[in-house]
Write a structure and sequence with these properties.
The complex is a heterodimer of chains A (about 900) and B (about 120).
Chain A lengths: L3 H24 L9 H8 L5 H14 L5 H13 L2 H12 L4 H8 L4 H34 L11 H16 L11 H29 L3 H8 L5 H4 L5 H20 L1 H9 L6 H17 L2 H11 L11 H8 L3 H46 L2 H29 L6 H13 L2 H9 L5 H24 L8 H5 L20 H23 L4 H11 L1 H4 L11 E2 L2 H12 L1 H15 L10 H15 L1 H9 L3 E2 L4 H76 L5 H32 L8 E3 L1 H9 L3 H6 L3 E5 L7 E3 L1 H18 L6 E8 L3 E8 L8 H4 L21 H11 L3 E6 L4 E8 L6
Parallel strand pairs in A: 4-6
Antiparallel strand pairs in A: 1-2, 3-5, 6-7, 7-9, 8-9
Helix pairs in contact in A: 1-9, 2-9, 2-14, 3-15, 3-17, 4-12, 4-14, 6-7, 7-17, 7-18, 7-19, 7-21, 8-17, 8-18, 9-16, 9-17, 10-15, 12-13, 12-19, 12-23, 13-17, 15-16, 16-17, 17-18, 17-29, 18-26, 19-23, 21-23, 24-30, 26-27, 26-28, 28-29, 30-31, 31-36, 32-34, 34-36
Chain B lengths: L1 E6 L3 H13 L2 E6 L2 H8 L6 E5 L7 H8 L9 E6 L4 H9 L4 E4 L4 H13 L1
Parallel strand pairs in B: 1-2, 1-3, 3-4, 4-5
Helix pairs in contact in B: 2-3
Classes of the chains: A mainly alpha (about 900), B alpha/beta (about 120).
Amino acid sequence: MVDNMSILIILPVYLLVLFAVAHWSEKRRNNKWTNSPYVYSLSLAVYCSAWTYYGSTGLAAESGLSYLTTYIGPVIITPVWIIVLRKIIRIARVNKVSSIADFISLRHGNSRFLGALVSVICILGVLPYIALQLKAISETIHVVTKSSGSEYVFQDTTTYVAIVLALFASYYGTRYVDASEKRKGIITAVALESLLKLFFFLLGGIYITFFAFDGFADIYQKASTLPNFAELNRIGGVPEAINWFLLCMLSVFAIFLLPRQFQMAVIENNRENHIKTAIWAFPLYLLLFNAFVFPIAWGGNLLFADNPAVNSDFYALLIPLHFDNNMIAMFVFLGGFSAAISMIIVSCIGLSTMLSNNILIPYGFVRALKSGELEENEKRIVRIRRIGIFSMIILAYFIYRYLVLEYNLVSIGMISFVMIVQLAPVFFASLIWKRGSVKGAVAGLIVGLLICSYTLLIPTGFGAYEAELTFMHKGPFGIEWLKPFQLFGIDYFEPIPHALFWSLFGNTFVFLAVSVSFQGNYRERNYAEMYVDIDNYITNHENAFIWKGEAYKSDIVKVLNRILGVERTNRAMRIFQLKYNVDENQELADARLIKFSENLLTGHIGTASAKILISSVVKEEKVTLTEVLEIVQESKENIILNKKLTETSRELQRLSAKLKSANEELLLKDKQKNEFLDTVTHELRTPITAIRAASEILYDDDDTPEELKKQFLQNIISESDRINRLIDKILDLEKFETGKQKMHFASYDIRATLQKALSPILHLIKQKSHRYEIRVPDEMELIDYDEERIIQVLNNLLSNAIKFAREQQGKIVVEITQDESQTRVSVYNNGKNITAEDIDAIFDKFFQSSDQTLRKPIGTGLGLAISKQIIEAHKGKIWAENMDVGVRFTFVLPNQTRET
Amino acid sequence: MRKILIVDDEPNIVMALDYAFRKNDFQVFIARDGQEALDLLEKEIPNVIILDIMMPKVDGYETLRQLKQNKNLASTKVIMLSAKNKDTDIEKALNLGADAYITKPFSIKKIVEQIQELLNL
């Protein structure tokens, strides 16, 4: 026996460790461990409550293999998670759903009543279940301490456990006003507990199998001699198989619908791909958990065969105690304790969120929230939830104390399951069926609950299965086919599968029938679309929301401010504006903003209240169902279009950027053209001015000296030539620029061409007494070019060199080099360097140096521009570079320009 | 004898103007760019200056701006002479203090008349 004192020490220490873990992971929200897929998988094992821990053994010992159904169901369904659970998670995340009631209520157009109904079902279904956990804690304490229950509340250890749990859950469960936030502390603590309960249970199992007995074979052999062994451990015929099937189905639904499972699997999921780990880790966990149930159960049956008073639920504790191994018993006890408290905490968080967001706030506090100030509101919401959690646990405690003491763990758990499973038709339909309506959902749920009450709750309540009530055996008013356990004369079902079958049948039938007979409202049709086709709306689901009416952004922001605070509201609005590229100053709110705002509020106050709050500040126009269907159809097409449009718009953006740069280029060209025209006019007017002035003088003055007359005539000639040259060059340039210039390629020796270019200006070099040098290789290949044009280029470069070489001791160097593919010609002069900004611009038309200290060149200002065009027409390159002293112009020609 | 300064980098235009003004009893000074003109104005105070705009080193606008700061030249008339004939160019020159703006090409006879008129005012 373990004495009372050590329990009083061990329990607080154990709870403290859990508090510490919760606290630690809450502080390290981004820690690798806190965000591990294994933590997620383990947290799902909250499924294994004290009922699993102890109840399975009891069930295996009393009624054979049917305990397995609770685990076979989830194991079978886990592979489907990858599709179904992911879809649920996406819907919940996108819409910021924070409970299963929110999930169902939102699908049916934020229906307040449906949300509340679902919440009530969950609370009614789960509270006794929580009570069960407290009962398990209490009874196991008595088992390990060999004490008996106390009549007095304050002498019952469970009272204190319940209070501590209530405090813990109400503190860590309400850290965030936004209920859709992840509760990292709780998750990690629950994951740790899952690990511990598995470990301790396995430890107990190993002890019992291998130390108390001699392994599996030993137990099996001994147990098979027991009179009821063979009868219990068979599946039986077809009716039995149907029972099995229904029980498996029950657990398949439960794994999705139990508030604690929904909380862990959906709300607390922070990465979709954690499912990938969970689909193998979770079934493995269940498998491990069940490995020792059978040996413990039959080991217990063997050991306590003579003592029918022993509760088979607690064999895992009783066997070690039987062999006086208090240590193992204590460990097993702690595992069961873990299983119980994690179930209690997670369930209470889920239930209290529903209680506050789907019952209390929409039915009571929503008006107060609308007028309240932010701090007040936040406090109010958190207070409602805290009180919710606290009162749930306390209520469960009283149920345990005064109502369920006499039932065994499994029966109550099963009844809970059947109640919760009533949500299955509406829940699963929301994933695949668009016509489900709120009327259908409500009617289906009520019918399901009524059948469930008639076939399960009332008989159980009236004193369990054996009661000698006439209506149980003969049916009410003697109507045989209304017997609660054998409705319509079907007598091969056991009570639980029986109730499940008829209640789900009635529920589904009514739900479908009412849904197809009466039109739903437009809002739910809208959400139906968003739920069923969630993958289409995952990134911009606000687009899919249909809403017509008049609303002002400022009104909505005011409401948001009251619940979220100014800072969060502003941040959210900025995100919205960025996401949809909406103008910040836009006054009117559109459908997207309405949906976005409802989403923001949903986590805090639930979907129904979010709609109520937003509707209170906007003027909504009615939309008919046909309109919605049209819009939905349209928007479906739109979404496909939208995807294409996004692509197209990206493409357009790219094009428009291109266009912009092309336009800029064009503007620049236009400006250049204008400048060019300006310059050309100026350049033409200058010689005309000189000609006109000279002519006028000659015309008017008869007494001009002969010598001067000749000079003026000479001027007229040279200025006329200048005009002609200019015109030639402009036309030249124009031909090159428009590609009309014809080139006459042939093979030439570049050295000979250089001579031809040099000879007419040699006298100019000599005149300025510049030194000049020509460096050419002895052997050279002929290369292809238009000789006349290259002479033009050389001429231009040489004249420039003569012009810009130093006045005194001017020097000009012409150098030609050749390699396999190209020939390089450079002309150097030892004049002033060109400024960096001019070095490229120097090849522009009418370039005038920004350095105005340069003498205005005598040429037309088009020489280098034309040279560049010529070289480029030869597929060559021309450039200027500053040397240490002087400037070098170089052009490169490919040896073969013509196609070979 | 009245003094005239001709500032232009086109030798043939300068030659014609030089001949015309000499004939009309002006003492003619010649500068081939703005800088030369400003240097020359340190020593000489002409009655009138004919100023081209597009010139190397210091252009006509800059020359005008600088010579307007020279108090000795307060009574000197400045006539801009340019192939630029856009309103903006003319306005710019007048704003800088030019007394007249003549566009190229021009009539020698008229320019002489215009300048004499300007000086007789």
